[in-house]
Fold this protein.
Amino acid sequence: MEWLGTFWQSRDFEVGLGQPIYAALTGAGVPGWLVSILYPVVGAATILGIITVSVMMALWLERKGLARMQDRYGPNRVGPFGLGQSPADVVKLLSKEVITPRGVDRLLHYLGPILVLSPSLLMWAVVPWGPGLQVADLNVAVLYLVAFGSIPVLGITLAGWGSNNKYSLLGGMRAVVQYVSYEVPAALTLVIPVLLAGTLSLQGIVSAQSGPFWNWFIFKPIIVFPVLGIAAFVLYLIGGLAEANRTPFDHVEADSELVAGFQTEYAGMQWALFMLAEYGNSIAISLLGSTLFLGGYHTGLGDWFDDLIWPLLPGVLATKAAVIFAIFVWIRGSLPRFRYDQLMGFAWKRMLPAALFLISVTAVLAPWIRSVPVAR
Amino acid sequence: MTDLLARPASQSNPDADLGDSLTASPGMATASEERDTLITLNMGPQHPSTHGVFRLIMQLQGETVVASTPVMGYLHRSSEKLGEVRTYVQGTVLTDRMDYLSPITTNWAYAMAIERLAGLEVPERAEFLRVLTGELSRISSHLVAIGTFGQDVGMYGTPLLWALREREMILDMLALVAGVRMNPSYVRYGGVARDAPPEFFRKLQEFLDIFSSKIDEYESVLTTNEIFRNRTVGIGLLPPEIAKAYSVTGPILRASGVPYDVRLAEPYSIYNRFDWEVPVRYNGDCFDRYLVRIAEMRQSARILQQALDGIPEGDIRAKLPKVLKPPKGEAYARIEGPKGEIGFYLVSDGTVNPYRYNVRPPSFVNLTCLGQVAIGHKLADAVVILGSFDIVMGEVDR
């Protein structure tokens, strides 16, 4: 089992918290290979807990935010500020019967939620919460994100097809078109921070943005090409909205047209898995947006300040993600849904050329931008 | 699309268990290989955006509507028959439950028919109260129409809840004047049920003071929204000839460029005393229907302000017998309701009950052309078109 120990040691434990924890545990007599297995397992379990809690918080934020936009109170009965509403809903959903309607394709019907949820959970594995505080610091993290970001469409299509319902079928059909259209510009915008940082590793991208806030990739290209960073960030947000099936791109559900789209025939916890996936995905997109463009866990006040408050760095990332998620809520409260052919036109005729243009500009200017000396 | 429609209807039914009469409408694509690519989508009667228990059977080619058949009758409550076995005053409560979003106007049409039947004169103050409550009802109906239209286009409730906020004020005013919020039965033959308290006029003035800025608020979130325009401009075109052929009335007709409003075409009550305009738009699409409703709310507010300033003192009810027995005969009265022309046809045989109690419900008549308007659009547009028609099933099915 020695190879396992060295394999896990190779990357994850080099920086940050991993090394001291490893040293402390092996010093206390725990075998190195056991620590190497337990460390990612504990990490994954922690991430799962964080996902559940943050999805509940996101639901609360969304319901409160929308309610305030619409002149109502929102949840305010369960717990302080209605914070207990989401846990109560989860308990309710857990206790509900999972209904499998007659006539569904059972295998596909069961497979649907799993295929949708797992990739959105896996996306969280590469989110860097702090120096070394990450389940897996892959050196191809951005590629990994694009790969796993495109799997949920399979689950949605299977769920829509296997439900034996025409609304579900139409929802599943729309899902394919929407994902295929938006994968392309969304993946292309991810190239821009990669070019600016010169690495595919998310830790590398974040450390390239350390120091004062004008090092963040949304601001950094300002000296050379003013709108580059902001335009890339906006494109990323639009692509993210489409990836997460949120308004104005919620065609897959489209409550006013398709009842509930691909999830019409799902009930109880199976439905809750879809919701968990959707919100898990939205939050992951917010987290990655802050990682790629907004400096990740860096406060933007200089490295000396980050070093001073290092235990709070995950909170910095969470705050930035909450701001992006709040923008998503804001958009949901104020925009209607595109029609689904308009959505495709928007993706192929507007977003794709814009993304390609930005990439070419970045590719030409990146060496220059990277060479600009900045304060740390 | 057109060559699909041009094919003759075949013998076999694409979806036999839906029943021949419902699916086999002329123009449905029918050659067997083309039938295989069509989906029969049964939208409703239980669907979030059919505005009640309305059913639309659509043949879809992909997401494009090839043929559609509206099916009504799920909320049929025999109101017209019930009206014949009740006395004239009892018939009023049936009218409340037809267009429950704007009950005053339906009350009013019924009361006008009885007044013509029995030759009753309505006091001036009662006419003013009718105009006040009737225009408030029109505004509240248009508010719901615009709010739910936003919902149909895919907004997550924001315009709907903003509209309902102002509708609350109107319902509170109706509660002050009629005693209840939803089914007021306020306009009765010979006048109105009771006089309005001073607080009503104060609240009405407060409402009129803020209402214009509230309409601007709805416009800021809908009219100027690029996605909203993309979804509504050019969708559901209804040319004026077809609108006239289907007897379409109300905002839908006026959005198609026909300046027909019963308040102007055949002035009733005291509408000729006020200074107001009939909003007309000429494109006949969903966006224009929405704009006409917005403009009508502004005009209604204008009428309300003049009526509020000019309301005289006096009686609110004509001298009436204890039991009304109109002389033998028939009468038809029509008024401009928020959804179109509401007509009441009453036949009296000299007893306490009408012999015939017949309604011309505007949303029912408007709905008949939906099947034709929706053809060739996407499924998502069919929902928007239905929303722009502003139906209320209580009135469609009666």
Notes: Chain B has two domains: 2-71, 79-360.
